[in-house]
């Protein structure tokens, strides 16, 4: 992440880590979450759900910071994040 | 052969406790902004710290009006334009409860316009949330009192010849004590406004500019939901405390958003109590006049 001014406590404060979960069959493929995840974690799967929509999936190489914005922007209650138990 | 049930309740979404999950997925189109507002409203109800048994959600007819049917709280889906009258009755019968009206621009301000005006005038303690998608979404995209001048709808294929209402200015002029407008992408600010509006005593009004890609966007060359959502946000400017008369919605210029009004007035129920306890103010100022006359007579007698 690029900082405009480096926070003084950058080394001492661990960034929150999250795990993003998708309720696949609720998704209607609007791509709001994909477009507005500030960490670029999400992309659309090539698979379809039961309603015929592509749904988002998390790129394991990207770091989810558990900001929960995807959860707030999803009109379908189809995606949310939880704190990653590994951190 | 019975189809497999839609993915069993797992994993459980954090808003599921206030959703009628048996009705989800809801009917709103892919990329409709109503779902974002509904999500924000649920968060606001939780954040406002109210006893959820005392919260009721009332809506009228329209896509937005379906909110009442999806929230797992006391709720009522009224007839077209009549959400505010129903909410008025509910509030008067149970003054201890919090009544939230959530409905569309057409429902609240076309067919329901007079109810809106008078509820604001009387300062009824209601929270009114209007999803403004600039048209009648549910019936296929007809002209609404919010449709921008020039915008195409099914009933104005060449573009609307009408000037739209400024709902926030109208609410403020009628006496609303809390007035705010956001786009559906101002999620955090919208949620804060909804919490404030719910907690505010008196008539509070929150308008949300939200994409209707199916009925409105499609006829106005913006088909992609994300583009519509982004456009409303990109063209918005935040002007808190601005006179709502100046808070215009001008697509070629700016869509002015913000919290415009936050003031205090006695509510209808306060005044109703005064009248019934025979404590209403001396509205003609007769008492004042009598005292003045007495004083004058006393002066003349000296
Ligand atoms: C008395 C009556 N007149 C007309 C209708 C048809 N009707 C249903 S929804 C609607 C307009 C809804 O527009 P809006 O409130 O903006 O809701 P949206 O669908 O855009 O969310 C109309 C005219 C009706 N249901 N009842
Ligand atoms: S929680 Fe935040 S960082 Fe994680 S996927 Fe959602 S939007 Fe992206
Ligand atoms: S915001 Fe929700 S409905 Fe839209 S693509 Fe993401 S998960 Fe699916
Ligand atoms: S018609 Fe418009 S307002 Fe109605 S659900 Fe579809 S996108 Fe939303
Ligand atoms: Mg509408």
Could you characterize the architecture of this molecule?
Chain A has a domain at 27-82. Chain A is α+β, with helices and mostly antiparallel strands and 87 residues long. Chain A is built from two helices and four strands. Chain B has 302 residues and is α/β, with parallel strands linked by helices. Chain B has one domain (13-265): Thiamin diphosphate (ThDP)-binding fold, Pyr/PP domains (Rossmann fold, 3-Layer(aba) Sandwich). Chain B has helices at 34-47, 67-70, 83-93, 105-111, 113-122, 167-174, 187-199, 213-217, 225-234, 268-276, 286-301, and strands spanning 55-59, 74-77, 98-104, 127-132, 178-183, 204-209, 236-238, 255-262. The model of chain B is unreliable at 1-9 (pLDDT under 50). One iron/sulfur cluster (SF4) binds next to helix 1 and strand 3 of chain A.
How many strand elements of chain B? 8
Helix content of chain B: 25-40%
Question: Ligands in the structure?
Answer: thiamine diphosphate, iron/sulfur cluster, magnesium ion
CATH superfamily of chain B: Thiamin diphosphate (ThDP)-binding fold, Pyr/PP domains
């Amino acid at each position: 992440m690029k900082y405009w001014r480096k926070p003084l406590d950058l080394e001492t404060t661990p960034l929150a880590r999250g795990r993003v979960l998708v309720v696949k069959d609720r998704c209607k493929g609007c791509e709001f979450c994909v477009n507005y995840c500030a960490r670029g974690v999400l992309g659309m799967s090539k698979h379809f759900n039961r309603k015929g929509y592509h749904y988002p999936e998390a790129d394991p190489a990207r770091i989810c910071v558990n900001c929960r914005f995807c959860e707030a922007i999803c009109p379908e209650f189809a995606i949310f994040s939880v704190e990653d138990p590994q951190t | 052969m019975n189809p497999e049930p839609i993915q069993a309740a797992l994993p459980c979404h954090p808003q599921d406790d206030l959703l009628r999950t048996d009705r989800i997925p809801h009917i709103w189109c892919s990329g409709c902004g109503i779902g974002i507002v509904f999500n924000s409203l649920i968060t606001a109800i939780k954040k406002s710290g109210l006893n959820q048994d005392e919260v009721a959600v009332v809506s009228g007819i329209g896509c937005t009006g379906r909110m009442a049917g999806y929230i797992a709280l006391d709720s009522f889906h009224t007839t077209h334009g009549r959400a505010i009258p129903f909410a008025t009755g509910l509030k008067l019968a149970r003054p201890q409860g919090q009544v939230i009206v959530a409905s569309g621009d057409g429902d609240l301000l076309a067919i329901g316009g007079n109810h809106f005006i008078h509820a604001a005038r009387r300062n009824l303690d209601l929270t009114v949330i209007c999803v403004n998608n600039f048209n009648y979404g549910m019936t296929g995209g007809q002209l609404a009192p919010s449709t921008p001048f020039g915008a195409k709808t099914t009933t104005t294929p060449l573009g609307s010849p009408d000037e739209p209402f400024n709902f926030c200015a109208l609410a403020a002029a009628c006496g609303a004590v809390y007035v705010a407008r956001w786009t559906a992408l101002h999620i955090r600010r919208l949620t804060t406004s909804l919490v404030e509006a719910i907690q505010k005593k008196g008539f509070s009004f929150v308008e949300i500019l939200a994409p209707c890609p199916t009925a409105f966007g499609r006829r106005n060359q913006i088909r992609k939901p994300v583009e519509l959502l982004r456009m409303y946000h990109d063209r918005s400017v935040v002007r808190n405390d601005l006179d709502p008369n100046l808070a215009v919605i001008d697509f070629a210029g700016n869509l002015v958003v913000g919290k415009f009004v936050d003031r205090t007035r006695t509510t209808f129920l306060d005044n109703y109590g005064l009248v019934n306890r025979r404590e209403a103010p001396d509205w003609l100022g007769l008492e004042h006049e009598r005292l003045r006359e007495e004083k004058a007579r006393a002066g003349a007698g000296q």
